[in-house]
Amino acid sequence: MTTSVPRRRILYAFGMAPLLVACAPIAPGGGGSGAGPVTASNDQLDPEAVLRYADTSSPSRFDPHRSTVGQDIRFFTPVYDRLVHLSPDGQPIPGLATSWTWEEDGRALRMELRQGVRFHDGTPFDAEAVRANVERGKTVPGTSVGTDLANVESVEVAGPSTVVLRLSQPTAMLPGLLSHRAGAMVSPAAFADPDLDLRPVGTGMYRVTDYQPNNVIVYERNPDYWDDTVVGVRRLELRILTDEVTRMNALRTGEVDIALLNGRLGEEARGLPGVTVHQKVTLAYAGLLLNRARSQFADVRVRRAMNLAIDRPAIVAGVYFGAGEATVQPFPSTYYAHNPDFPADHYARDLARARALLAEAGHPNGFDFEMLVPSLTAFVQLAEAMQRMLAEVGIRARLRSVEVAQAGDVFYSQRDGDSLIAQWGGRPDPSMTIGLQYMPGGFANPGAHTTARLEELQRRALSTLDRQEREAAVREASGEIADQALDVPVIVEATTYATTERVANFSTLVTGQPDFRTLGALRTP
Amino acid sequence: MTTTAPTDGLDGREALAPPEPTARARFVRRFRRQLPAQLALGYLVVVVAGVALAPLLATHDPLVQNLNGVLQPPGGGHVLGTDDLGRDVFSRALYAGRVSLVAAAEAVGVAVLLGVVPGLVAGYAGKAVDAVIMRVTDALMSFPPLILAIAFVGVLGPSLTNAMIVIGVIFAPRFVRLVRGTVIAIREETYIEASRSIGTGTATVIRRHVLPNALSPLIVQISLTAAMAMLAEASLSFLGLGVQPPDASWGSMIERGFRYTASAPWLTVFPGLLIALTVLAFNLLGDGLRDSLGREIRRGS
Q1: Is residue A397 within 8 Å of residue A310, measured between CB atoms?
Q2: I need a surface site. Which of A301, B3, B10, B248 has the fewest CB within 10 A?
């Protein structure tokens, strides 16, 4: 859920408008041919076009209820509609549910469903399908959305196109949750298909016609798609090119039209003719996640010492080439969940204090621990930089490489490794991030460690439907996370995408994830 | 007469047949004619001395990072520039050389250990024993070396020693074949027959007569295999399966620098040159040794 793909993203939820400020694409530099972000009306788009896209890694699984990496959502959205969708500015908008209302003081959510929709395999989408999907999300072995749906006690089929979700307690973030993997609707007829991970069956505007893990995902238009206002393209080929230079070269030679890059290559791409670079700060943060049941990480003094050992500004400048902002909490400064009492320099580098804390904790000579590192350059660089900084206060990290797509499985599910260098992709609602990473039952909290105060704050955030109160509780929770140093956040990253001049209406949600619904290709004159 | 060497002296003794030179003297005399091999040897001595004295020669701590000075070009305070974490490339190259050379030595050591004894046995015993050993060897040789190494390292976990042991195992058949071939030839020599006819035991024959005579092709092969092992190490490290960070080998330095080929070519050029030159040196030395050891083909005087 967390891990993996560098420079990546989160789904966005309600109330995150401020982040859009950072969204303006950056015009190409002097060497370019003056390309800018292309916006086009529907009739300027070529519905028969083929767009090629270079990304960093395959999804951990193509089953949205069992995928272990939150950022996998970007692979799912073309093929799986969710009950709730997100507008470009991040507001929940109708998806497969056309409207929803709270009932019984927030203990029930009534949803009216879109009618006449069919899954790719012909199965009709109806209230029964929603019930089956929620049921599956809660119970399927290896579920990664069980926590998201934990408060949903039952789903009542109130009519052919009406469901009522009964909740154990008011859960204000539920619409946001349902815009992510938990709300992805899989064809009930495909539940038993052992190949669901290779041949996803949803209701989305594209179907997957070919999927070769770690190589290519081919999406082709779903001709029966319910939303005829979207154009899209005939075929979207997503190439998995783990190496960033390879992606850059693929863009340079015109082998792909869209490439996910990084801060440094973004600079380089700006000089290419006809290429537009889109860069924006997202909710994704990178750092060292700790299994607080292992090594010495149960001790808050040790965790604070680790935070104090890290020189964040140096990493932001040296490793990320400034594409991001330093942070000590899981949310960026532009986000409502950010607690302003814990600015990035709350744990400014202070080796003397770090050593003193270690000595107080009984480790005057430091200690050894294992650091899992997904085998992507960006992670290896971050790992080596942190390893070196920790070594200066006597904390010795042993690096162990893990394959990118397996990192989540190894650290969260198998509870192997003391810590993981990771990028948390964020969630449509901050309470989700807190629940998953810091609550005892959270999927991304392998040590099941938390603090009493954090549990109380989380309970408050989930039970109140008043937005202001909710936001206050979330902010306080973020402060508690930083104060207790539950992990070692380093940077909130900016995503860098580059597109060629064929690509129209490219935009990323605040999450940094491309909006595939608007994405299209210009007609060739 | 003043310009002639004393051994050609004119005191008349030269008319007599010169004393048979020792094997070592003959080797030295022949090796002196191999200029490329001598240069290669000189280069290798310099490299080995350089990496052995790395702590004295390094201008910086190879692990100290300077994130405010990443990807600095050569010159300034850094002879060969800095890498993606602001570490000094020259100092890292010195320490990385240790890793690369030790890795090559490990692989060669394993290959020799595993290759020589079966080769001796197969060559000397012949018949069924020979057939069995050689079929096993053929099977091993039919694996593509790097793929097999990658598979093993995948199972055992990435570590340079694991990788080099696997490479050593893969190279062992070359030694088996070489030693066997040499031994088969030696076995038929009259001095072996003579020794056996006076009742020398098999073990003694092998130790006293066969092994010493099989040594020279072996030495040549060791030199050539060292070059191949270095390349294998570089390939595996390039794939991230060899040396683990923060340590580096020349191969892993190229791997890291590869991402910056366009903007910071010095990250790949210098370790690349070191690998290329060292491999070349091992090969030239091997050629030179081959021409200086073993039977000398004499042209009529």
Answers
A1: no
A2: B3
Judge residue A310's burial from the number of C-beta atoms within 10 Å of its C-beta, 0-12 exposed, 13-18 middle, 19 or more buried. buried
Cβ-Cβ contacts under 8 Å, A384 against chain B: 65, 85, 245-246
For residue A354 the two structure tokens come to 């770090």
The pLDDT tens digits of the residues spanning B211-269 come to 888 888 888 889 889 888 888 888 887 777 778 888 889 988 988 888 788 778 999 99
Largest CA distance in chain A: 72
3-state SS track over B244-267: CCCCCCHHHHHHHHHCCCCCCCHH
- B33-293 under CATH 1.10.357.10, yes or no: no
- Nearest chain B CA: its distance from A282 CA (Å): 23
For residues A235 and A219, is the Cβ–Cβ distance under 8 A? yes
Distance CA B220, CA B238 (A): 28
Q: What share of chain B is helix, strand, coil (3-state, %, to 5)?
A: 70, 0, 30
ipTM over 0.85 threshold: no
Matching residue, tokens 């290959």: B111
Q: What does the pLDDT look like over A292-333, one tens digit per residue?
A: 999 999 999 999 999 999 999 999 989 988 888 999 999 888
Q: Which residues contact A304 (CB under 8 A, 6 or more apart)?
A: A347, A354, A357, A485
Tell me the shortest Cα–Cα distance from A317 to chain B, in angstroms. 7
Which of B67, B84, B262 is nearest residue A317 as measured by Cβ atoms? B67
